[in-house]
Amino acid sequence: MTRAESPVVGQRLSAERPLLLASGSPRRREILENLRVPFIVRPASADESTRDGEDAAAYLARVVLAKLDAAWAAGGSALENAGAVLVADTSVIDEGAILGKPGSIDEAEAMIARLAGKTHEVWTRFAIGRASAAGGTLHEQTVVTRVTFRPLTAARIRAYAESGEGMDKAGAYAVQGLGAGLVARVDGSYSNVVGLPACEVLVALEELGLVP
Ligand SMILES: Cc1cn([C@H]2C[C@H](O)[C@@H](COP(=O)(O)OP(=O)(O)OP(=O)(O)O)O2)c(=O)[nH]c1=O
Question: What's the catalysed reaction (predicted)?
Answer without folding.
Answer: dTTP + H2O = dTMP + diphosphate + H(+); UTP + H2O = UMP + diphosphate + H(+)
